[in-house]
Amino acid sequence: MSEPLRVGVVGCGVIAARYVQDSGVFEHWRPVACADLDARVAHAFADEHALRALALDDLVADAGVDLILNLTPPKAHAAVTAAALAAGKHVYTEKPLAVTAAEARPLVEEAVRRGLRLGCAPDTFLSSPYETGRRLIADGAIGAPVGAAASMLVGGPDAWHPNAAMFYRAGGGPLLDIAPYYLTVLVSLLGPIQSAAAFAETPSPERTLGAGARAGDTIQVEVPTHAAAVLRLHNGSLATLTVSFETRGQYLSGLTVYGTGGVLTLPDANAFSGDVVLSTLDGESRTVEFETRGARETRGIGIDDLALAIVDERPHRANAELALHVLEAAEAVVDSASDRRFVVLSPPRFWNG
Questions:
Q1: What are 238-278's pLDDT values in tens digits?
Q2: Is residue 200 within a helix (H) or strand (E), and if so which, with residue range?
Q3: Model's pTM, two decimal places?
Q4: pLDDT (mean) for 164-183
Q5: What integer is the mean pLDDT of 167-183?
Q6: Which of 19, 81, 241, 317 has its CB surrounded by the most CB atoms within 10 Å?
């Protein structure tokens, strides 16, 4: 690649600063412009990060932008992505791919039809700890995988996020905000999900916002905020998943994979660091050493892989088909909990089983 992909950032909120600040460690993409519904926010962000501030339509149409980084609230993901694809732009979007799988599927098909790349967060499954975990499982370090237990329990973003209300509406909640981290790593480690059975509750139907322009306002919660699921994977493994916005003052996150010959413990899937611990049948437990990518262990590695994949003419790894399968799995958990039934997923297109 002679030049890095020129990226236009849409949505100049909390996570945008993380992407842009860390972008300098990557070789294959760089932010060049930004847009936000609030022009003042866009101009302030542009001034802070040496970008061009444009109106959304102008950014999407700009010939100097190759890829749209879609960091808008979940309800806007599908519309922004569709507009970018229609303008001939590659897209990398924050999770979820869309609010519903029904909205997401046409985006996947449109990207394929146009020969454009559509990527989606999370890209934490590309971190060195999880790359190491995949290698160990593939090498038979724990024998045949039979199950996994994943959990991510936090208090919710209402205390600190300046636009926290969006996390308690359609497209939000722990099942679409934090479960994708673990659904993605489960699929990357063990393969696609075949079916789901779950319970979900909303113990706190109201939240008081603690930050931003609406600090002090009370909002109604429209989505489940605590969920527990059992997932059957196509390889026969059974995984449990617990996610919550109800465990105030806590941050509990981790994944354990069980096999016929050992146990693998992996770190927080919402981060790029942590220990990988291998326990075997002889009672030995050891921390596995692995090399890291240094500063490149951060959000944006999925965009970098997408850019390099264009040159290498290969699929990028944080791709739309994976994100769609994860969204369908999250919906299956919601539907199972709501209807008190097992939900069977359609086999994803990337699975050859």
A1: 999 999 999 999 999 999 999 999 999 999 999 999 999 99
A2: strand 193-201
A3: 0.95
A4: 93
A5: 93
A6: 81
Q: Which residue has the tokens 């039809």?
A: 113
Supply the angle between the helices 101-114 and 74-86 in degrees, to the nearest 10.
20
- If you average pLDDT over residues 83-101, what whole number do you get? 97
Strand locations in 234-302 (E): 238-244, 251-259, 262-266, 277-280, 285-287
CA distance 337 to 347: 21
- Sign of the Cα pseudo-torsion (304, 307, 308, 314, in order): positive
DSSP state of 157: G
User: Which of 114, 109, 266 is closest to 181 using CA atoms?
Assistant: 266
Burial category of 247 from C-beta neighbours within 10 Å (exposed 0-12, middle 13-18, buried 19 and up): middle
Residue ranges of alpha helices (H) inside the chain are: 14-22, 39-49, 56-61, 74-86, 101-114, 128-138, 173-177, 179-190, 301-312, 320-339
**Phi then psi dihedrals of residue 187, to 5 deg:** -65, -40
With beta carbons less than 8 A apart as the criterion, state whether 188 and 269 touch: no
Selection from 63, 114, 130 nearest residue 302 by Cα: 130
Which pairing describes strands 67-70 and 90-93: parallel, antiparallel, or unpaired? parallel
User: 139 exposed, middle or buried (CB, 10 Å; 0-12, 13-18, 19+)?
Assistant: exposed
The secondary structure of residue 23, as a DSSP letter, is G
The pLDDT value recorded for residue 1 is 54
Q: Residues 31-56: pLDDT tens digits?
A: 999 999 999 999 999 999 999 999 99
Residue 314: strand, helix, or coil: coil
